[in-house]
Amino acid sequence: MTVTDPVILYATFTATQGNAAQVAMLLSDYACEVRKEPGNLRFEALHRAELPESFFVFEEYADETAFQAHLNAPYGALFNAALTALIVEPHSVLTLLRRL
C-alpha cells in the first residue's frame, strides 16, 4: 500500500446486553463527525437485522494521510473510550481491505 492508495476497512463489535440503543446513538453522533473529515470518503454504520446488538462499520479514506488524520481526531479517543465501556469485546475488531 502506498500513501496514495485508499484505506478501506471495516469494524465489528457487539453491544453488551441492554446497551444496543446507546451504542447506536453514540455511533450515529460519531459518524456525523467522521463524515466531515476532508479525507473521509465513506463511513457507514449498520447493525445486523437479526442481531441488533451486533454492529458493522464500513470506512474508506482517501489515503494513509487521511486515515492517520482520522485516527488522531480528538473526538475519536472520546468515542472509543465511551464505546469500550458498552461492548463485549475489549475494542472494536478492525479488518483492513484492499481493492482487487
Q: Any chance you could write out the topology, listing elements then pairs?
A:
Elements: E1 7-14, H1 20-34, E2 40-47, E3 54-61, H2 64-71, H3 74-84, E4 93-97
Domain ABM: 7-100
Pfam families: ABM
Protein name: ABM domain-containing protein
Describe the protein in words:
This protein has 100 residues and is α+β, with helices and mostly antiparallel strands. The protein has a single domain (7-97), classed as Alpha-Beta Plaits (2-Layer Sandwich). 34% of the residues lie in helices and 29% in strands. The chain has three helices and four strands, in the order E-H-E-E-H-H-E. It has a four-stranded antiparallel β-sheet. A hairpin with a 6-residue loop joins strand 2 and strand 3 (54-61). Helix 1 runs antiparallel to helix 3 (74-84). The chain is globular and about 40 Å long. The mean pLDDT is 96.
Rg for CA atoms: 14 Å
Structural class: alpha+beta
**Tally of extended strands?**
4
Question: Oligomeric form of this entry?
Answer: single chain
Ranges where pLDDT stays below 50 over 5 or more residues in a row are none
Backbone shape:
globular
**Helix content percent band:** 25-40%
How can the largest sheet be summarized? 4 strands, antiparallel
The number of helices is 3
- How far the N terminus sits from the C terminus, by CA atoms, comes to 12 Å
What name does the CATH topology carry?
Answer: Alpha-Beta Plaits
- Mean of residue pLDDT values: 96
Total domain count: 1
CATH class: Alpha Beta
